[in-house]
Structure formats: structure tokens, C-alpha cells
């Protein structure tokens, strides 16, 4: 086991962590995030570090120990730096553009796909074939990127479609004569 929970979460300058009765709230320059706390973990702040400990020796308490620590670390990083997910679009005539609060995708269908950008997410298109999803919540950034990828996932023969920039496609060989 990795014992992720043993390591404290370093709280940088400009980030404020507050522990309420049933949740922890992180405030920073990119906004405010909160996560629920269970009765199975105890938390404390000490010298600019946030510690999480299991309340008892049950298996559930030990699993929530690492989960809570990881969620708090993601919140702290999110409100201070933010998370970014990059997508690439491959295919002839495939392109993306942002118009106001709408992402317009041309992915080979008869009509353009118009996706309303959710609150707390910023989408930019540095090139017509690149999409950057940026936000404070790691879960929300990943979900939005997955939705955009889901409009036209990459196919294995030519690689056409929307893929993550760090994704490796396993290509298949086409038919032979």
C-alpha cells in the first residue's frame, strides 16, 4: 500500500483552508472549493501543513484517510494553480472555436456541435485543432474534457477524432488486398 495519507498537504501562501463541522473549504485566487469530511478521519492544521489521520483502525477509515488527503491536496492545487487538460483534434475539416460561452466543434457530422461551457471552466483554442480546458476543480476539468472527447472519440484506423494530447493510440492495420 502507498499510505498516501501519511504525507501532509502543504498549504501555500494565498490559500486559506477552513475545517467546518462536516466539510473542508479551500479559498484561493482561482476561487473556492469544498469537499465533505466523514467521521472516519480527523484533521488538523499545523505549521502551514494540513494533516489527515484515520479516526479508528477500520478498513473504511483507512481508505477514507488517503481519499480525504488526496481530495484536499487537489483542492489546494486547484485554487492556487488550477488544472488544465489539453485535447487534440485530428481529421480533415475537423476544427474547434470558442464563441462567447459556447465551444463550437466541427467533427465531420452534418451539423456543428455547440457545447455550452459550464461555470468555473475556461476553454481556449490556441489553434483550430487544439482545445485547452482549464479550471480549479480537477473533477470538473476532467469531466468536461471527457464530454468533449466523447463527441468523436479517436478511431483506431486513421486516428481521426478528438483525443487527449498525452493519449497514445494503438493503431490497427487496414484491410489488405
TrEMBL record:
PROSITE patterns linked to this entry: RIBOSOMAL_L6_1
UniProt keyword RNA-binding present: yes
Domain of life: Bacteria
Keywords: Ribonucleoprotein, Ribosomal protein, RNA-binding, rRNA-binding
Pfam families with a match to the protein in the record: Ribosomal_L6
Cellular component terms per the entry's GO annotation: cytosolic large ribosomal subunit
Domain Large ribosomal subunit protein uL6 alpha-beta: 11-82, 91-164
InterPro entries hit by this protein: Ribosomal_uL6-like (IPR000702), Ribosomal_uL6-like_a/b-dom_sf (IPR036789), Ribosomal_uL6_a/b-dom (IPR020040), Ribosomal_uL6_bac-type (IPR019906), Ribosomal_uL6_CS (IPR002358)
GO biological process, one term: cytoplasmic translation
Single GO term (MF): rRNA binding
Cell membrane keyword on record: no
PANTHER family from the UniProt entry: 60S/50S RIBOSOMAL PROTEIN L6/L9, LARGE RIBOSOMAL SUBUNIT PROTEIN UL6M
Subunit record text: Part of the 50S ribosomal subunit.
Physiological role: This protein binds to the 23S rRNA, and is important in its secondary structure. It is located near the subunit interface in the base of the L7/L12 stalk, and near the tRNA binding site of the peptidyltransferase center.
UniProt record similarity statement: Belongs to the universal ribosomal protein uL6 family.
Protein name: Large ribosomal subunit protein uL6
Annotated organism of origin: Limimonas halophila
